[in-house]
Amino acid sequence: DAGVTQSPTHLIKTRGQHVTLRCSPISGHKSVSWYQQVLGQGPQFIFQYYEKEERGRGNFPDRFSARQFPNYSSELNVNALLLGDSALYLCASSSSGTSETQYFGPGTRLLVL
Amino acid sequence: GEDVEQSLFLSVREGDSSVINCTYTDSSSTYLYWYKQEPGAGLQLLTYIFSNMDMKQDQRLTVLLNKKDKHLSLRIADTQTGDSAIYFCAESMRGGSYIPTFGRGTSLIVHP
User: Fold this and answer.
1) What is the per-residue DSSP string for chain B?
2) Per-residue pLDDT of chain A in tens (113 residues, 90 and over written 9)
3) With an 8 Å Cβ cutoff, are A104 and B105 in contact?
4) Which residue of B has its CA nearest to A43?
5) Do residue A42 and residue B4 have CB atoms under 8 angstroms apart?
6) Alpha-carbon torsion B43, B72, B61, B106, what sign?
7) How many CB atoms lie within 10 A of CB A52?
8) Which residues are CB-contacts of A71 (< 8 A; sequence separation ≥ 6)?
9) From residue B54, how far is each of B75, B90, B93 by CA, in Å?
10) CA B49 to CA B39: how far, in whole Å?
11) Contact (CB<8Å) B45/A103
């Protein structure tokens, strides 16, 4: 069975641009969470979605937004990119919004120049 | 300050045991996790322990939890070069969504 998949694997953008990152959860999982991992740090929680509804939001500016589709895949959007947005963006899926375990994808590495 | 703290580096010889330590601050933590991240990859869930347990063993991995001291450790027996990676400790709390809070990670280097 396929694990969590993310696309693209790598991305280079310039300051002020917009980016969309995509995630497909494990088959049968209905919850998707997004994390930002800056080099040398642990992942920081951005959003959690369950059944297309936002269930949690971390301490990130409004430039960050996300949505979940009927097939449970998800997109993370970041507007007006800053140099500090350069990071590995990780998607994690879990079977439900209250599952104690999450399974992570390989991430999308974003570089903002 | 950080909710979860870990030492940054650990170096061991192949075949020895590795012990990676972690302290957390929130006494209402419900689950405590260990994740492994290899270079350029996402996070792999290694094991997790419920907060009413003291110990959990899974093949070469042993997790010890000291709730009084808010201390979690991961012991890897017979450490191999393939165990070289960054290990993240994380805690989560009951209350709807088990969103983990991660430490900064411990870089484990295994040398021959």
Assistant:
1) --SEEE-SEEEEETTS-EEEEEEE--TTEEEEEEEEE-TT--EEEEEEEETT-SEEEETTEEEEEETTTTEEEEEESS--GGG-EEEEEEEEESSS----EE---EEEEEE-
2) 679 999 999 999 999 999 999 999 999 999 999 999 999 899 999 999 999 999 889 999 999 999 999 999 999 999 999 999 999 999 999 987 677 788 999 999 999 99
3) no
4) B102
5) yes
6) positive
7) 12
8) none
9) 14, 16, 17
10) 25
11) yes
Cβ within 8 Å, pair B48-A98? no
Residue B19's identity, in one-letter code, is V
Tokens read off for A5: 């998949």
pLDDT, tens digit, for every residue of B38-88? 988 889 999 999 888 899 999 999 999 998 899 999 999 999 999 999 999
Tokens of A24: 């497909």
Nearest beta carbon to residue B41 from set A40, A94, A106 = A106
